[in-house]
Amino acid sequence: MNDLVRQRQIIELLRDRPFASVRELQERLGVSAATVRRDIDKIDLSGGARKVYGGVSALEGSAQAPAFARPYDENRDLAVDAKRQIADLAATLVVDGDTVIVNGGSTCYHLGVKLADRNIRLFTSSMPLAAYLGEHGKCSLTIAGGELHREPGVIYSPSQPANFFASKLFVGAQGISADGLLESHPLMVRAIQELSHNVDQVIVLADSRKFSIHARHVALPLSRVGMLITDDGLSDQHAKMLEAAGIALRIAPNGWLA
């Protein structure tokens, strides 16, 4: 396989995901890490993608990185590896005896699966997660009251605010900007805002692609976020934005638990 073919394959891989690590590309392309890094340098110089720590990232606002938020059913199948890595790291923040809230969204779903057998109290408004934990989990489970909203897959009632208090709220976002956590669905905005009043710490789980996605509403300002966990496709620009907002940043690099 020549250089141009490899580089074309790398760019094609980024059409439905935000980031690919050097190690993953080694295995996929069957070449050395040095060869992968040279390919990434050339792709970066040509403007086909962006070189970042540990690998290569899709360009913000390009066809590779969707500019607008997607429905839950579509977003669930994007950047799955990054979401699982973020969930792995987030799970280490939970200790036995904790009381936590795990909000709706695909990355939070992966965290809930990780916590299924833990000795904790867990509250969720996510219908997919509640169904999984009801069948497979051993943790103490509390489910939000109200109606099922199939998009975005949550249970919510404006007349029944959650009466559950926890040390940590794990929450996702459709997009992230200097304004805060962004959501396109007003229901999610209300739910996140209500839950944020019931916890000591808000922890955001978001793959790096979310920093290039736009949604209509601000659910929470960055000032309300204590920690954000993402993958190593995060750009320096966005890392500095989070640092300036006083947010503790944790990076889950590809294969970090391997």
Describe the structure.
By secondary structure, the protein is an alpha/beta fold. The chain is built from 9 helices and 15 strands. Strands 6-5-4-9-12-14-15 form a 7-stranded parallel beta sheet, with helices on both faces. It has a 3-stranded antiparallel beta sheet with strand order 1-3-2. The longest helix is centred in the first third of the chain and has 14 residues, at 33-46.
Outline the fold blueprint.
Layout: H1 3-13, E1 19-21, H2 22-29, H3 33-46, E2 50-52, E3 55-57, H4 72-75, H5 80-91, E4 99-102, H6 106-114, E5 121-124, H7 127-136, E6 140-143, E7 147-149, E8 154-156, E9 166-171, E10 175-177, E11 180-183, H8 186-196, E12 199-205, E13 217-220, E14 227-231, H9 236-244, E15 248-252
Parallel strand pairs: 4-5, 4-9, 5-6, 9-12, 12-14, 14-15
Antiparallel strand pairs: 1-3, 2-3, 7-8, 10-11, 11-13
Helix pairs in contact: 1-3, 2-3, 5-6, 6-7
